[in-house]
Amino acid sequence: MTDVVLCKTAEVSPSHLAATRQMLDQAFDGDFADTDWEHGLGGTHAMIVEGEQVLAHASVVARTIIVGTRSVRVGYVESVGVAPTRQRLGLGSAVMRAIDEVITEQFELGMLGTGEFDFYERLGWERWHGSTWTVRDDGRREPTPDDDGLIMVFRTGHLSDLDPTLPITCEDRAGDCW
Predict the structure, then answer these.
(1) Bridge pairing between strands 70-82 and 109-113
(2) 3 state DSSP class of 19
(3) Terminus of the chain with fewer CB atoms < 10 Å: N or C?
(4) Bridge partners of residue 66, in order along the sequence
């Protein structure tokens, strides 16, 4: 197995950033928007690289999420993908295990939005059952029912007793808020 490289966005070479974006476009079969890419920048990247080719990638960025009424520092996972020719070889699990370590060391809770529950559940993630909300720029809080049931969390031990039925609220952002 190829080693996982951990680095901050500023430490990733321009060629590896371009290769990562290209791989994610392929992994998502063209359904990876510019805003999806932007959401994954500015944090820590876990990558498996072979020469100039990026075979697998995941990133974690800091976000503040309101859980019930409590403000929680969350490591939000973005841009998880594996090159189509290298899927089902454990590369995605390897980058996610590295990201889980970053979350455990730096955040109160890990969080992500997905429909790929089995993959993440095998890695210790659990589904969030509470409703999802966003806070708009004008301060209005609005429900995001299309995201209900699609959020997963990774407990770091800091908030092991957190009730997974509480509502969660994120800040609004371009593209998908969750």
Answers:
(1) parallel
(2) helix
(3) N
(4) 71, 169
Strands 5-8 and 168-171: unpaired
List, in sequence order, every residue forming a beta bridge with 8; answer none if it has no partner: 44
Contacts of 17 (CB under 8 A, 6+ apart): 9
Degrees to nearest 5, angle at CA 11 with 152 and 92: 35
Q: What's the CA gap between 72 and 80, in Å, rounded? A: 22
Q: For the segment 134-168, what is each residue's pLDDT rounded down to a tens digit?
A: 999 888 999 999 999 999 999 998 777 899 999 99
Write down the pTM of the prediction: 0.95
The answer to whether the CB of 109 falls within 8 A of the CB of 156 is yes
Task: State the DSSP H helix or E strand holding residue 36, giving kind and residue range, or none if neither.
Answer: helix 34-39
For a pLDDT cut of 90, what percent of the chain falls above it?
92
